[in-house]
From TrEMBL:
PROSITE patterns: THIOREDOXIN_1, THIOREDOXIN_2. Residues 1-109 form the Thioredoxin domain. This is Thioredoxin. InterPro entries: Thioredoxin, Thioredoxin-like_sf, Thioredoxin_CS, Thioredoxin_domain. The record marks 27 as: Deprotonates C-terminal active site Cys. SUPFAM superfamilies: Thioredoxin-like (SSF52833). GO terms for cellular component: cytosol. It comes from Nitrospira tepida.
Amino acid sequence: MAGLALKVDDKNWEAEVINAPELVMVDFWAVWCGPCQMVAPIVDELAQEYAGRVRVRKLNTDENPEIAGRYQIMSIPTILFFKNGQLAERLVGARPKRQFKDVIDSLLAKPSATT
């Protein structure tokens, strides 16, 4: 289904997240995680609402422990936001949709850094 959050893993992390031209939201989750299951429909809704402006991805921490370790994911769900290949924001735990939207809107409003 178009617009829903797509899977990201060790193989495509660089291309899908670090080298992405747009803002990227990554949901770190696991199958056994109850709060992750609660957040999943919100993540998919955001993927549809922000299609073309925000790249929304999901990373299974059990299948990709190296990336989870690199970003010090200690509890899930953790949502990381990347802008220009850099970690821009971190939300830990299940949150209401409004909080995700506030972070996305704030990051989209900030001009991209030119270094």
